[in-house]
Amino acid sequence: MRNKLLFALSLAGILAGTATAYYFNIKKSPLPAVFSPAANPYGSGVYAEGIVESVQASGENISVYPEVPGTVRKILVTEGQEVKKGAPLLVIDETVQRATAEQLASQAEAARALLEELKAQPRKETLQVAQAQVDSAQATVKTTTDALSKQQASYELDPKSISKDALDNALNAAAVAEANLEVAKKQLDLIKAGAWIYDIQNQERQYNALQKAYVASSELLSKFTLRAPSDGMVLTMNTNVGSYVSSQGSYETYTQGMEPVLVLGTPQSTLHVRCYIDEMLVPRLPDPSKIKAEMSIRGSNIKLPLQFVRVQPLVSPKIELSDQRQEKVDVRVLPVIFSFEKPKDVNLYPGELVDVYVGN
After folding, report:
1. Which domain holds residue 204?
2. Which pairs from 39-42 meet CB under 8 Å and 24+ separation?
3. What does the alpha-carbon distance between residue 15 and residue 19 come to, in Å, rounded to a whole number?
4. What DSSP character marks residue 281?
5. CA 356 to chain centre
């Protein structure tokens, strides 16, 4: 009985092992590919890696940096928003600069008022005072002259009627009165002449200097509002309210580097593709008038025809997106720019990498 049981168990093990081996050796059909890898559509073509950009007459997307440092007080646009040239994008705290501009404005206004005062001289009331002083001096001269005449007449009649000392005092008083009259007349002439031309010129220069300082301060104040340098679309905003920005851009928390405060592109109905052709393949490029190209969008089976735009005629070292050279071998590339119409049903944005084939 025991041998029969062992035999049955052995047979069951053999059958189970055979079934298991058969099951795991069955070839399963492979799952269909989510998308086909990029393939060369031309009999002979040059492959290049490309990056999608917004349309620009030259260069790449517009990186916007502030000309003055400070804390962001207000952000006036959102990512994806279209803006016109000169439209305000964000405001940097300008409290100190505004106070400085207002102070210079007040100083310039005070200098202008003093200049107008100099040009308006002589003042009517000042002339009246000076004329009154001349009249008073003339009256004093007449009084002292009459007193001297009386004393001289008395002395001539009787030298003992008046002392020599009194006669000398009368003579001196008359001379002093004449001198005071002369001073009063010259003072009147000086007031009538108005402000000295050199005083006016000096004040004009002070006013002009303060006015220019105010204009410069106002221009600097306007820099605290960052404006769009051209028509475009806000592709990315790399700061927020309360963050510190400078002419080097804004600090990026994750990469711990500096980035532009914001990046502007153009409306995305038409886009560019910047391709980097290896210098070893540059001789195989056809004449620009005969260039034809096609790009494949990664992660899909979508292929789009490209229109040649221009060649950036400078072969330069290939740089990684982090703007640092990572290759041990100095790979040099030639940038070639193509354009294409963005399909309405395709999600495609500036900054995406695509595969490009250029026919030759």
Report:
1. 99-118+200-221
2. 39/296, 40/357, 41/294, 41/303, 41/357, 41/359, 42/292, 42/357, 42/359, 42/360
3. 6
4. T
5. 37
Into how many domains does the chain fold?
A: 4
pTM of the model: 0.62
CATH code, 261: 2.40.50.100
Question: Which are the contacts of 130, defined by CB distance < 8 A and separation ≥ 6?
Answer: 184, 187, 188, 191
Last residue of a domain, one of 265, 296, 319: 265
In a domain, 173, yes or no: yes
**3-state secondary structure string across 243-258:** CEEECCEEEECCCCEE
**pLDDT tens for the chain, residues 1 to 360:** 666 666 666 767 777 777 676 666 766 666 665 666 777 777 778 888 899 888 877 666 788 999 999 999 999 999 889 899 999 999 999 999 999 999 999 999 999 999 999 998 888 888 899 999 999 999 999 999 988 888 888 888 887 778 888 888 888 998 999 999 999 999 989 888 888 999 999 999 999 999 999 999 999 999 999 999 888 889 889 998 999 999 998 988 777 788 899 998 877 677 889 999 988 888 888 888 888 899 998 888 889 999 999 988 888 887 654 445 454 556 888 999 999 888 888 888 888 899 999 987
Residue partners of 9: CB distance under 8 A and separation at least 6: none
Distance of CA 285 to the CA centre of its chain: 41
270 with 353, same domain: the answer is yes
Which residues partner with 270 through β-bridges?
Answer: 341
